[in-house]
Write a structure and sequence with these properties.
The complex is a heterodimer of chains A (356) and B (179). Chain A is of the alpha+beta class. Chain A has 13 helices and ten strands. The longest helix of chain A is centred in the C-terminal third of the chain and has 27 residues. Chain A starts with a helix and ends with a helix. Chain B is mainly α. In chain B, 49% of the residues lie in helices and 8% in strands. The longest helix of chain B is centred in the C-terminal third of the chain and has 22 residues. The chains are: A alpha+beta (356), B mainly alpha (179). The interface between A and B is large, with 41 and 33 residues.
Chain lengths: 356, 179
Amino acid sequence: MLDKILDEPLSGWLKSSDPLGKMDSHIVLSSRIRLARNFKGLQFTNRNNEESLKKVDTMMRGVLGTLKAADGRDYSNISLDKLSDTEREILVEKHLMSPQMGQKAMYRSLIVANDASVAIMVNEEDHIRIQAMEPGLKLKEALEHAFLIDDAIESKCDYAFSERYGYLTACPTNVGTGLRASVMLHLPALAMTGRINRLVRNITQLGYSVRGLYGEGSQALGNIYQISNQVTMGISEEDTIQQIQKVIEKLVQEEVKAREAIKSNDFEAFEDRVWRAFGTLQYARRLSGEEALSLLSDVQLGMDMGVLPQHSADVFSELVVTTRPNFLSKYAGKESMTAPERDSYRAKVVRDRLAR
Amino acid sequence: MLCDNCKKNEATVHMTRVVNGKKSERHLCNACAKQQGEDFGGQGFMNFGPSLWDNDFFTNDFFTNSLYPDSLLNPRQETRCSQCGMTFSDFNQTGKFGCDHCYEAFEAQIAPLVRRLQGSLNYEGRVPSRGTGVFKTKHQIKRLRQELDKAVKAEQFEEAVRLRDEIKSLEQSLGNTDK
C-alpha cells in the first residue's frame, strides 16, 4: 500500500476526469477539504506531551475498520518515523500531507485510503486533520466525503467541541468549523497576460488566501495556484464552499477570457512560445525543477488551446509530481543525487513521458 | 536595618517589587511579614511549613507560592489553564493554544481575539451528534427558520408549511428535554 502511494505519480484525485480538448477542463486541477479536529481532554500537539500524542496515535490506529465501514475504502496507517526523509517528502510533494508534517516528530502518522481520496494527518498542528480530495471542481463531493469520515471518527472518539466556539483547534484561525476548502488551479493565460496579480489582490481582499503549489509561503511554480477560505466562524461549511465555488468559477471565466485574448492577439508569438517549450522538454538534457514546471505549464496551455498535439490528459499533472526532487530520487532508485544528476534524470523522465 | 512596618524589630524579609517598571523595596521583620502575608489572601507568605528544608526549597514553586507570592511580585497575576498549564503569554508567543480547556481558561481574552480574527463570534457549523443533543436541535431550528424565511419570500407555501411543522415538532422535543 505504502509502495503504491509512493511510487504512483498520480493519486486518483489528480487524474483528469474530463475528456480531452475541452477548453476549461484543465484549469481546475483538484478540490480539497480539510477538517481540523482535536480530542477532548488531551493536550494539543504543540505542548509535546508524550502521553497525549501517544493516546491520539493509539485512538487513530483503532478506527481504521470504522473508516472502512463508513466509505468502503481500505485504509492504512503509515507511521512517519519509519519512513526515510525522502519518502516523507514524497508524501508532501504528492499533496497528501503538509510540509510541516514532513518534519520528523513523535507519533506522527498518515492514514490513507487505498485510492488516496482521503488522507488523515495524525498529530500535526491539530490532533487530526481530515483531508478529502477530488479531481476538478468538486468541493461538495469532497465535503460530503470528509463529513462521512468525521462522523465515523466521532462515533468512536470525543471531539473537543464547545457550543460557543465550535470545534476547538490549536490555532484560533481554525476554530469553529475547522474547515479549509481549497482548490488548485492552473492559470497560465492570466499569468501570461499579467492579469493574475490584480485578481489575486482582489481575492485576498475578499478574505481568501492565495498560495502557490505547496501551500503557505510557496511561489506559484508552474502557474499553479491554491485558493482557500480563511474564515471558520460565523459561516456554515456548506456556505463556505458555496462562496468559494463562486470565486473559483469567476477565476475560471477570467482564465478562459485571457485565453481568448491570446488568440486574438499576435497568436503566432504564442504558438512560437509553446512550440519552443515543447521542443525544449522533448530534447533537453538537463532541466531544473523550476524550468521544467514553467515549460510544462506552457505546453499544457498549448495543448488546451489546440496548438500542440494532444497528449494523454494527465501528462501535465503527472509530470508536475514526477519532476519534484524527492519523487525523482525515488524514481531513479537513488536517495541522494547531486543537482546535475537530478537535472539530467529529470530531463530524461520528461523526454520519455512525452515520447510515449 | 529596622522593619519598615513596626520600626522596632530587625528586618529579616526583604522584598523588591516591580510594578509597571517602577521598583520599590520593603524590609519587614518576621512578625510583620507574616501578618502581611495573611493580608494577601492568607496565602501563607511566611508559612514555611514542613517543606522548608525539602529539595523543592529552591524550586520556583517554593518561591512563588511561599516566600514570594505572585500576588506580591506581580500584581497582575496570569491565569493558567488548569488542564495544560499554559498561560496567555505563552499563547502570545506561539500563537497556539495548549488544549481544549484553554478556550475556557482564557475566555476573556479569546472572545475579542476570535472576533478580530474571524469577524464573528457566532458558530454556524455542524455539531457532533454525541452529548450535545439540545444544542444540535437549537441549531437545527435556527437553520430551518432561515429556510422558512426563504421559502416564504419565494412564495413556496407548501414548503413553508412543511418547514413550520418541522420546527414545531423540534421545539416540542426541546420542551420535553428541558423538563
